[in-house]
Amino acid sequence: MCPVPAPLARACKHKENILDKTFLVGKYRISPQSKQTESGAYAASLSIRSGHGSGSHDRIFRFVPQFDSNEAALQYALAQSQGLIGGSNC
Fold first, then answer.
1. Residue 66 class from Cβ within 10 Å (0-12 exposed, 13-18 middle, 19+ buried)?
2. Is residue 23 part of a domain?
3. In a domain, 10, yes or no
4. This protein's superkingdom (predicted)?
5. Which domain holds residue 71?
6. Gyration radius of the chain over CA positions
7. What CATH number has the domain bearing residue 42?
8. SS3 letters for 19-72?
9. Is the residue at 13 inside a domain?
10. What would the pLDDT profile of 6-41 be if each residue is shown by its tens digit?
11. How many CB atoms lie within 10 A of CB 84?
């Protein structure tokens, strides 16, 4: 189940221990990610991209909290994106 509304979901790619969901919000391409660590917990990260070609920016945020599930990590990254886009200078 995607943590973002279906109209916003651009792609869902399944990789080993990684679930990547990318969607657009205005001029930003948002990619919340979750990766299972060696300890079995899940770590959340977030990519916020803007621009095209050589004029593009990509900011990667890795978050300290670890989660019991993949979905919880993705939800956390998604929640963080809402605050970062509003105050971001990407």
1. middle
2. yes
3. no
4. Bacteria
5. 18-86
6. 13
7. 3.30.160
8. EEEEEEECCEEEEEEEEECCCCCEEEEEEEEECCHHHCEEEEEEEEEEECCHHH
9. no
10. 333 333 333 333 445 788 888 899 999 999 999 999
11. 16
